[in-house]
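quick one if you have a minute, typing this from the bus. theres a chain ive been looking at and ive put its sequence and its fold in token form underneath. please have a look and point out which stretches look like helix strand or loop to you. anything you notice is useful, everything is just below.

***
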Amino acid sequence: MTTRRILVVDDEPGIRQALGQLLEYEGYEVHTAAGGADGITLFEKVRPQLVFLDVKMAGLDGLEVLKRLRLLDGHALVVMISGHATIQTAVEATQLGAYDILEKPLDTDRVLVLLRNAFETRALTEENERLRQTIESRYEIVGKTYAIRALLDRIDKVAATPARVLITGENGTGKELVARAIHRGSPRAKKPFVEVNCAAIPSELIESELFGHMKGSFTGAISDRAGKFEQADHGTLFLDEIGDMSLAAQAKVLRVLQDGVVTRIGGNKPIQVDVRVLAATNKALEAEIASGRFREDLFYCLNVVPITVPPLRERREDIEQLVIHFLRQFAARDGLPARAISDEALGRLTELDWPGNVRELRNTIERLVILANAPTIAAADIDRLVGTRSEEPAGLGNLVDCTTFEEFKQAAERAFLVAKLRAFDWNVSETARALDMPRSNLYKKIERYGLTREIAPEPSS
């Protein structure tokens, strides 16, 4: 176990000696300073986890030292000690960021309890920071190509504004990452980020999900419930797959965006909300408008700033960086050293087509991490576990050879399903959702055509 470092800054030798002996007896590494200037210098040198700091000292007094320590380390735990503590001193010290204040003469039991609580607080802070970094890594936009740099530049420009953003792009390109990056860079960053997948919620429930409902307003409404707009108040609401929302729900969303007011289903009390709305879709909304499936007025309301996320095929130079990023991510998740990958294997991955974009690449790297036999992922692993994918989807090149129209339709359907399943890395649920097809129907067609993932056989020993 790493020794905890504590710094004691006090101009009384007796306090430094007594406190130092107590702390060393409890197993702490103790450093002492007789004045404020020396204390600041020592703090920078040893970076203690906790500081005991006298309030009244010659030269720099404790409160001034506290200000400087907090500038050096915003998370520094500083306990003030004073022989003449007043309410005003305690308030001022707390406002400056002191963890606590102790009166002289110091009580041993109080010191030990304070130490236990302070280090538990520090451990929670460090754990929260680690989790925050893990989450940010999970949603990091990785790449150095011009397309990604241009995307990040637009995110930076729009994030600080209250403007609505419409994010478009193919499945798996990272539209959610863009939405989260906008929220993270906005003044609303510390407020809720609420996500709604409009395609995953049945049309008869989407209004309840967005606007909430009152108890008894419909079968199953057993209690009052706040909708996503209320949950995102003062924060950001991300409407993913907005193109799949029903026309009735679109009309109500438009009204909320215009008025800033929601009314729960079955209720009559308007509720004021302050929500920034970001929307995303993989559909061409202009075509949806032309076919009568999407409201033109809602499109213009959402499309204040358009952002298009480039597909992976338009930024192949980023594949290597993405692979390394995912290898580190999975290693951190599993508490293991990051897997290495050979240059030849990286080259193979760069050459492959990725119709499912970054999502497909990430799933593929996870498969390689789990199933590769050696510590270093080799080109043979790519061939065995990923395949070359150089062939056309089954039957696509032979459609003109079909002798009947029925045979042609079946061959075309088979080729289409194989292409879509590949695009979603053979995730049946995701594919069925994208095709607007019941999952059971897709399973039946997979069975009918005998479709299986193309994986090369294990090499013979």
